[in-house]
Structure formats: structure tokens, C-alpha cells
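Worked Example 4.2. Read the sequence first, then its C-alpha cells.
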Amino acid sequence: MNKIKKLKRLPLIIKNLDSLVGNNQFVFLISHMRSYSSLLSHIMGSHRSISGYYETHLSYKNNLDLLHLEIKLMEENNGKETIYLDKLLHNNCDISDNIINSDRVKIIVYIRKPEKTCQSILHLANKTQGMEPYQNIDYVANYYYSRLKFISDFSKRVSRDSLFFKAEDIIQDSEKILSNISSFLGLSDRLDSNYKIFKRTRQPGAGDVSNYIRRGVVVKNEHKYNTKIDEQILKKLNVCYEDVYKSLKKNCKFIS
């Protein structure tokens, strides 16, 4: 954080000092690209008790990093300070064991099957400037494989209850998923499948840049892709998915 940003944030910090030094809660969504993470984070960020709906690209080593997240989200969602949300979709963003297992932190994990995930990444990359590496199926497959392995290892580090479900169920069985998340977070008002459009919605680097995220409601259909994934690549990714799926079911509280 540079000096100019610090000075600009000072009035906000002073105004919300009581909240910042309080016992605020945090929820981290652990997943991968094109897992409906923007949809879920928009739904959660639309709740009156949750701040955050986009990917901040932060790592969390200590309480100062949690404070950084609070201040960052207060700039946009001032007045909502019960639960602060971030989603982590890449291996270069991690959370220390102390933070993972803090009683102030909740972990939600979800993964999507490989074929649709890879097709979706390729489709988006071919339409989006700055995503050129993801136009290559080998690059995409490596990302997906390494990310799932990372998520599996991550789940083994969590000693507290964490929640796990199939990403597809966010749209196919949204009522059940949102009900379980609401209970898991102890929300007095249940999460709703309708959601708000925010300042950073469709902003590159913050989440989904496609038009689908602007619908404002969960739509129960999946996009059809013409891209064919090499059978050998898909076989390797399917084996990885099944292994990680079993591991997550074992290590997390599973929504079947």
C-alpha cells in the first residue's frame, strides 16, 4: 500500500476504527477459475451482513493481512462490517495455518468438473484481452490440475469445520447450497439467489468478465461449448478430479 493510498484511506480508517479492531468474521471461498465463483460471491456480497464479492488477489499470513482486507472492502461497502469475503482461485494466493484455523474464519471449498471448466476458460480467454496464455489447452490443463492438487492439500490443513460442494450445484441446486452456506455462516437472513451488480462487476482481474454475471439472478442452464478437449488430457484431469473430490469429501463437511 503506497503512501498516497494510506493517506486517502486514513479518514475511512478513523471513522470505522471500532469496527476494524473488533472481532469481525471472515469467509474465504477456495476454488478455481470458471467455477461459478463470481456468481456465488455476488450472491454472498449482496447479503446485508457480508462485504466483498470480487477477487482481491491477496494472501493472508497474519492479522494485518485480514485488516488490509477489511480496509480494502470498506472503501466500497462502508457500513457492512459483519463478515468480510474474499475468493482465492490461484496458487500464488495462500492463507497461513494460523489464519485458516482462526475462530474468526470460515472456509468454503468447491470444484467443477474438468471438461466444462477447461472449455469455459478457453472460451473466455479467446474473447478477453490479457488472457492469451489461457488460449492454450496445455496451459489451461496444467492450471486446473495444479489448482485442484493445491486445494486438496489446502483442505488437509484446515482443522476447523469447512464446507465443500460441487460447483455445478451452485446453479443446479442453488436453494440447497445457499441454505447450507447460510447455516454454516450463522446468517440470520438466508442468502437469496437474486444478487446485486456492483462497481467491479465484469472488471478484468476481479472476476467474471462475461455478460452472464449481469443477470442478477441464478439461471439454471449451462453454456454449451464446441471446443473439444484431447481425450488423454481429459482422462488425466478426470482422474485428478475424482481423487481430489474424494479427499475433499473426507476433509470437509460435504453438501451432497
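Now turn to a second chain, presented in exactly the same format:
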Amino acid sequence: METIVRIYEFRDFPNPRRVRVFLAEKGVSVPFEQVNVPEGEHRSPNFLAKNPYAAVPTLELEDGTCISETVAICRYFEERHPAPALMGATAREKAEIDMWQRRIESTIMNPVEAYFHHATPGLGSLETYQNEAWGRKNRETALAAISRLDAQLGDKPFIAGETISIADVTGLCALDFAALLDIEVPEDCGNVKRWHAALSSRPSAAA
């Protein structure tokens, strides 16, 4: 089995947090090394040699293999540490969790990130292009998706089943990042508020 050297991250960003929360739910400890993204360290030749897409988180293995993309990193740990299963145990569970993980990522997480980069100062001088109208449109997209999530949750404890999954981890980190940008859960989304409060009380939320 490969030896894990470290995970490169910038702790204040939501995608690295997704990995930390995921690992905390599994009870897995991994060394983390900070990359100063606001200062442009992720664009340095040294880091680009590890990840030419200049993104965190990035997992580095002992043989020099580097794995990036949040879900890919989580998949790596899911395969190495199958229990508790956060990406499903049966074919149906895996498909439903994958569906909801993708929905939450594409309709809440990614739009909130687009709002950050386009309709706020974002990363300042590192932002090479900004379109405020596009950013605000993404804010609307995220809020609409939160309302749809409220309907999905109903009285369920978790998004995709009776136990926590990567879909919940993504949702928690997306909503917490949204709140930092003053994108609040609509008042009529009581199911989302209940679910978010329950997730926030888990020890993993502080990872």
C-alpha cells in the first residue's frame, strides 16, 4: 500500500475543508501542508510540478504521484478505509450518493465559488477576470438549489440516506462558505437549517 506523504491545502478554503471533514468522519489522520494561495504560492513552479492546475487540495504519495480534485482524493481514502462508507456500500447507495454529491457540488458549491471570484474582491490581484453580473447570477443559482435541497431533506437526517455521506460533507462546507459571503439559507428552508445544525454539531465539522 502506498505511503501518504501529505495533503497540500489552504485551510480557509471550502474544498480542502471537505477533505478534512471526510477524513475526520473516517477517523483517518493525514499530514497537511499549507499552500499560501492568497500570496500566489499555488502558481509557483514547485507547486505546479505537483498540480499543473494550480489547485488545492492535492494529495502527494511517497512515489511522487499527486492526486488532485476533492472527490478523487476522497475516493482514494474511501477505497483504503472502506468503513464507515461515506460514498456508499451497495450499487444503489453509491449511485444515489454520487448523484446528490454532484448536485450539491454543481448547484451550490460551484456557484458560491463563482460568486466569490466574480462578485466579491475574491483573491484580489490574483483574479485575472471578473464578471460581477455572472457572480450575482450564481448567487441566485445557489439560493434556488438550497430551496430544492430543503424539499429533498424533508424529515430525513441526511441528504442521501440514513447515514452521513460525502454529499452531506459537501453541503456543509458549501453552506458554511456561503454564509461567510453573506449568502444565508432562506428563512423558509427549515429542513436545511435543521440538517445544517445537526451536521455542525458533529466533531468532524471542526476538522
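Notes for the reader: The radius of gyration is 17 Å. The helical segments are 14-26, 45-48, 70-80, 91-119, 132-153, 166-180, 190-200.
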